[in-house]
Design a protein that fits this description.
The structure is a single chain. The protein has 3 helices and 5 strands; from the N terminus they run E-E-H-E-E-E-H-H. By secondary structure, it is of the alpha+beta class. It is elongated.
């Protein structure tokens, strides 16, 4: 088993798991739209972004494609992560304003409008 931390909590993961799989296994919610267990993950929607920190550096990664590694420090709800998710939700609301699934998920994370232009108000497909 691989040991890492998610939001300051030490967790264990099986070799080959991704950060998203590990988080879900331990009850940590990370939003996704493009992820499905039956399809190979590709990180297209970017809603599953998390922050990895080590000493004085950090980076954002797509948790659905990032493999677990011993000793990782993963954070799922930092200000950087929230900013990226808000931006992605706004982009999705602009490109697929008629998608109830997108609107519901965006609202769950506090995003109910977009600053980006809407080209087709009837669009429901996000062309993933």
């Amino acid at each position: 088993m691989i040991e890492l931390s998610i939001n300051e909590k030490v967790v264990k993961a099986r070799p080959g798991w991704t950060l998203l799989e590990t988080a879900r296994h331990h009850g940590v919610k990370i939003p996704t739209l493009c992820y499905h267990e039956s399809v190979a993950p590709n990180g297209a929607c970017r809603l599953c972004m998390v922050e990895i920190r080590e000493d004085d550096w950090s980076k954002l990664v797509a948790s659905c494609i990032y493999p677990v590694k011993e000793g990782l420090n993963v954070y799922t709800d930092t200000e950087r992560v929230q900013n990226v998710r808000r931006w992605v939700f706004e982009m999705l609301l602009a490109s697929t304003p008629a998608s109830q699934e997108v609107r519901d998920l965006a609202a769950e994370y506090g995003v109910v409008s977009t600053r980006f232009p809407i080209h087709d108000p009837d669009q429901t497909c996000m062309v993933c």
